[in-house]
Amino acid sequence: MGLSFLAAGADGTGVNPLVALAYLASGVFFILALRGLSSPATSRRGNRFGMIGMLIAVGTTLITHDIANILEIAVAILIGGLIGFTIARKIAMTQMPELVAAFHSLVGLAAVLVGWAAYLNPGAFGLLVDGGISAVSKVEMGLGIAIGAITFSGSVIAFAKLSGKMSGAAILLPARHVINLGTLAAIIVLTALFAMAAPAETFPLIAGLTVLAFIIGFLLIIPIGGADMPVVVSMLNSYSGWAAAAMGFTLGNTAMIITGALVGSSGAILSYIMCRAMNRSFISVIAGGFGAEASAGGGAAIEQRPFKQGSAADAAFMLEQAEKVIIIPGYGMAVAQAQHALREMTDVLEEKGVEVKFAIHPVAGRMPGHMNVLLAEANVSYDKVFELEDINSEFAQADVAFIIGANDVVNPAAKTDKSSPIYGMPVFDVDKAKQVFFIKRSMGGVGYAGVDNDVFYMDQTMMLLSDAKKMVEEIVKSMD
């Protein structure tokens, strides 16, 4: 939904019933967009509904308001549209998580700028009451600016971690919990003082809460490790929605309130789903994240243990002999862009009478639904893709568990090792399959949680050490 809910301007008092009806219609289309985006099969239709809703919201605003310079606004829309179109055409699917984080940062920054514009020129936004801004409006304004600033700075850190511009490991500051709680308390106090202060005394208060909100956004995301990034992405999406909703109340804009509330609530629900998938509480994610302890200690050395290494020809022979194969993709597949080769391998196996299914963990990849999108891009049929709770019981009947680029989501330490940072997270029972193929670049790397994986060393596991795309292509050639 991104910047859409900030594009529509204030609708004033909303006296005109046609304006209210138009904003209501845009809200309905946004609801239909969210419903469509809930499934890969209907995602294109959902995107179209979102575009229609945005067109109605922007068009209604431009038609019903006195615009100082419509040409400048048209040029700005054109430039923004061209930038968005260019990015959408060129961006790789592996870069989608950091793109989403970058867009969230823009949403947050837009909320901050709108809030400051309303503060500096309240008359233009219809906020003047008896020569000043009402206390209620100042609370809404302060909350919108604070949430927007947190969204901006937090999204910048998320973007840097997802894009590899900074380490994905948890960066732990001394007394971080005390610092974070103190900063949040200071923001709340400054917001309250801002609401009660006389007009001449408000500037240092709103400036102070803005600066502190930018700071706390950085502080909240820096200590979160890469394994919790799916939760972070959905959490920041929720923040951006609440920031827009707060600005909507300030500006009296129905479209912003409706759409901001939709984005905020859907992001919060998605965050809950992600946390439940990892058997973790939202607070525990914000407090540190997977890998925090390992990062603090510099990471434990990986024990050198014997393992079996195989070739593409070995894997091809055993796959052809199998009756049932379950493929578990992870972020490594995305990095190697191996989804198309994997689809080709699936087609070859099915032609030979092998049943092939895909198992998707809710937190696989770097954002919710990352693997589903990649498989959809490669035209893998939706009826072959299953979530953890729907397919986990089938590994005991599978001849082959084919792991490509996944790690933490198949680590049995989550079930057996109480000292592991991923203990309690539901994982795939790949150890119950008759044979396990594990594609990995090398034995030196570990998952985002920073822990070794016992699956590497199981008797039925054969490690296929290579680039994921190259290995799958070689397997396909060996099956011809």
Describe the structure.
The protein has 480 residues and is an alpha/beta fold. It folds into 2 domains: 4-293, no CATH class; 312-479, Rossmann fold (3-Layer(aba) Sandwich), CATH 3.40.50. 57% of the residues lie in helices and 7% in strands. It has helices at 4-7, 17-37, 43-64, 70-90, 96-120, 135-162, 176-196, 203-221, 229-251, 254-277, 282-287, 292-296, 312-321, 331-336, 339-351, 370-377, 388-391, 413-416, 468-479; strands spanning 128-129, 132-133, 324-329, 355-360, 385-387, 400-404, 435-440, 461-465. The strands form 2 sheets. A 6-stranded parallel β-sheet has the order 5-4-3-6-7-8. A two-stranded antiparallel ribbon has the order 1-2. α5 (96-120) packs antiparallel against α6 (135-162), α5 (96-120) runs parallel beside α9 (229-251) and α6 packs parallel to α8 (203-221). The longest helix is centred in the first third of the chain and has 28 residues, at 135-162. The two termini are 45 Å apart. The relative contact order is 0.10. Mean pLDDT is 84; it is low at 1-15 and 291-301. Keywords: Cell inner membrane, Cell membrane, Membrane, NAD, NADP, Translocase, Transmembrane, Transmembrane helix. It is found in: Cell inner membrane. Its main location: membrane.
Give the secondary structure arrangement, pairings included.
Blueprint: H1 4-7, H2 17-37, H3 43-64, H4 70-90, H5 96-120, E1 128-129, E2 132-133, H6 135-162, H7 176-196, H8 203-221, H9 229-251, H10 254-277, H11 282-287, H12 292-296, H13 312-321, E3 324-329, H14 331-336, H15 339-351, E4 355-360, H16 370-377, E5 385-387, H17 388-391, E6 400-404, H18 413-416, E7 435-440, E8 461-465, H19 468-479
Parallel strand pairs: 3-4, 3-6, 4-5, 6-7, 7-8
Antiparallel strand pairs: 1-2
Domain NADP transhydrogenase beta-like: 20-477
Subcellular location: Cell inner membrane
Function: The transhydrogenation between NADH and NADP is coupled to respiration and ATP hydrolysis and functions as a proton pump across the membrane.
